[in-house]
Design brief:
The chain is 25% helix and 24% strand. It is of the alpha+beta class. It has one domain: 3-Layer(aba) Sandwich (Aminopeptidase), CATH 3.40.630. Strands 1-2-3-4-5-6-8-7 form an eight-stranded mixed β-sheet. Strand 3 and strand 4 form a beta hairpin. The longest helix is centred in the C-terminal third of the chain and has 13 residues. The N terminus is likely disordered.
Length: 206
């Protein structure tokens, strides 16, 4: 399970790496009508702030994520306010899993971090709020974002993920979202979904 509010890891600016470039927002927004969800940016609203605080304080989320030591509303508001800058610096893309029917509800989060532009890959992370689990929402959200990231709209060639070896639910999400299990490293199970290389394949915007 990926984590909200973590300090995102960028690809760095070493001598063999291109300079950071902005990560675009999906346009139009990514929608799964079957699952009834849309992926949207975080908003500086009381509902979004409260949902992020609840996620930071949820032991199930914290067990699989790098959550901040300060799970306060003030810290959550600052993190949400920094989302645009993280995208502009090419560090991370954080999207709310929201109901397609509308309303302010936050069902969960899905995002990209550890963006490596030289190798055109990034790590996917996700979580679903406790009341909305076991409905297939994580699978739908991860599948949506990975598909977009591997398309010409973003242009990555690999999206990878890490899950806890004891978290069978997150493993099912990764597998059902089209990821294949690579093995274990650093105490985590590593998963990968790749874009088929085609003649004339060109770099995208991520």
């Amino acid at each position: 399970m990926g984590g909200p509010g973590a300090t995102p890891g960028g690809g760095g600016d070493g001598p063999d790496r291109p300079p950071p470039a902005p990560i675009p927002l999906p346009d139009p927004p990514l929608v799964d009508r079957g699952a009834g969800i849309v992926l949207r940016p975080w908003a500086p609203t009381p509902t979004d702030v409260a949902a992020l605080v609840a996620a930071w304080r949820d032991p199930a989320v914290a067990a699989g994520a790098r959550v901040p030591g300060d799970p306060s509303p003030e810290a959550a508001a600052r993190w949400i306010a920094g989302a645009a800058e993280r995208r502009a610096r090419g560090l991370a893309l954080d999207l709310v899993v929201a109901p397609l029917a509308g309303g302010p509800a936050v069902l969960g989060e899905v995002g990209l971090r550890n963006v490596d532009r030289a190798r055109r890959r990034a790590e996917a992370g996700w979580w679903i709020a406790a009341p909305h689990r076991r409905r297939g929402l994580a699978t739908a959200a991860v599948r949506l974002l990975a598909g977009w990231a591997l398309s010409d709209a973003c242009g990555l060639v690999q999206v990878w993920a890490r899950t806890d070896p004891g978290n069978a639910a997150s493993a099912r999400v990764a597998a059902r979202a089209g990821f294949r299990r690579l093995g274990e490293a650093g105490g985590a199970v590593v998963w990968s979904r790749e874009r088929p290389r085609m003649p004339g394949d060109r770099e995208g915007r991520c």
